[in-house]
Structures are given as structure tokens and as C-alpha cells.
Amino acid sequence: MSYIKPQFHHPELKKNKVGYYKTDYEGVISTLCAGCGHDSISSAIVHACYEISLEPHRLAKLSGIGCSSKTPAYFLSNSHGFNSVHGRMPSVATGAGLANRDLIYMGISGDGDTASIGMGQFVHAVRRNINMVYIVMNNGCYGLTKGQDSATADFGSISKSGSENPYTAIDLVGLALELNAGFVGRSFSGDKSQLVPMIKAALSHPGFAFIDVISPCVTFNNNQGSTKSYSYVRDHIEATSVLDFVPFEEEIKVDYEDGTSAELELFNGSKIVLSKISSHWDPRNKILAKKYLNESKENGQILTGLFYIDTETESFHKKLNTVTTPLNKLSKNDLCPGSSKLTDINKTFM
Prior knowledge:
The protein is built from twelve helices and 13 strands. By secondary structure, the chain is of the alpha/beta class. It has one domain: 3-Layer(aba) Sandwich (Rossmann fold), CATH 3.40.50.970. Helix 3 (about 90-100) runs parallel beside helix 5. It starts with about 35 loop residues before the first helix and ends with a helix.
């Protein structure tokens, strides 16, 4: 069996607007378990970046520790990357983002990496509105260390070993909403038609964009007692809306009946088009998002879709008034402007 991907392709294979084939957005062959939801998420990232014509070298992918944090090796091999220690990815993303704002940052994490050891880092990344896409591959267990319950495992769920979880689950979507994240969504690894446009929209959002993706662990958490198994999610999933993403360059055509669609313009002129399943759903209404999220929990449903978006959010760079030039491009004259400038600065403190 070969583990080397072929380098040739069909001569008529379609290129995107920046001249790349979809294969140019792939990575090495995955070493995760066959059927792992994480691989489906990696595939969705490949599709999203290819379809919006993102140049691979403009993306920096960051991760921590866990099965999810291995996945950046499986997509966009020609992008920047950094695999940090357990739960510390947001710190690296913060520092990298401040040093070079020309890159687009994507953090890949898991429910253990984010909801346990990395909880404090996640909370502050949200409240600071770090310019990044933060994807949690949420399987409710520690797959890398033989399937123990994670902090997102539902109360009363039965693990593969037969033990019942006695703790209340941490809902990362609810937490992100409470902390005023400007983009909050949830999807299912088996629903690429929803996940791909959601990733596209998140990549166009200027501040912190959070996507919680239910991603069943086929080895340790796909049993009948798990609320994050493929069968349970498919039986209990409910979408808030049908999501589409329209880049600014394309002609925008919307043909929905009155009262059944919402069109949200993003900062760069791109648009999110939502066909609303609920006539009262409005992703710009945070109170409504929290209400539906809580009701879905009471009804035993897994609610997916774009929960909330703030189209007027103030990014981390704007809050701190950071320099627009990446630090590695600043010249000596920029960094050492001379004693007269220092004198002018000192006068402002008198």
C-alpha cells in the first residue's frame, strides 16, 4: 500500500481564480481512524479555501494537542503552520496575528484542547476578538488517550466502556455567545453542504469567528449511548437555516419568497445568504440565538447553522490601533525614528 499521493492530474482539471488546483490545497495522507469525522472537516476546509480562491501561502494554520490538532497536516501543505502545546494555541495565534496582520489565521482545536486545559486561553481569545477562524472538532472524548469523556460530553451519556458521565457538559457555542463572539456557528462533520459555506463566511469575517463542529469519534464515541455518535446526531439534528456564501466578485442572485431569506453583507463586500427554516430566525439577534439554543437542549436536539453574526464588530487590531505593516517588514527608520520623535512622545506625558 502506498502512502505517497500521486503528483499528476487530469490535463483539464479546473483551476480556481488564483491558478490553483484543488489538489494544491490538500496535505499529507491522514493517519486518523478510517471514518473519522475530523477528516471530513479537513476536506471541507480544502473545498472552502479552493472555492474562495485563497492563496495557500496567505493562511497560517495553528493547533494544540489531540486528534484534531493533527489535522492541519492533512490540508493546505503550502501554508504556514505551527503546532503548539496542549491548550495554548490561542496565545500563539494572538502573537502571530499581532506580528503579521497580512495573514489569515485558522486555529484547529478539539473539545479537550479547548474546553479543558485550554479553556482560559479560549475565553480570552473570544473576548479580545482575535482576528482568526477558530474551529473545534468536537467528539466529546479524548480519542488520543483511549476515549475518556471530555468536558463537552453530555450529562448521562454512556461511554464505550459503559460508564455514565456524571458531569454537566460545557456548551462552547453558548459560551462564545455569552462572551460576545462576533461570528458563532455550529455544524456537523457529515454535513458538508452546510459546513463548507460556513467556513467560507468565517474566513471573510474580520474578528473572531467560532465554529463548533460535531465530529463523531468512530473508535471511542460512536456507540449507542453517545449523543455525539453518527446515528444520534443524524436523528436529532436541526438546522437553523440553509447557508450559502457569495464572494464579492460574483453576481449575486437571490430568488426566495418574501420573509424566507436573509442577506448579510460582510466587510469585504461578500454576502451570506440564509434561507430560514424558522420564519423568526435572525442571526443578528443574539438574544434569539441564545433562546433557540437553550430550547434545542431541552428538546434533546442538536441545533446547527449560523447562530450569530455581528457585521459591525471591532477587531483586535482596531481596539489596539496596531501598525498596519507586518513587523518583519518594518525598516530600521520605522523602528528607530530618532531622538526628536522620542522627545515629542515624552511631551505628551507632561
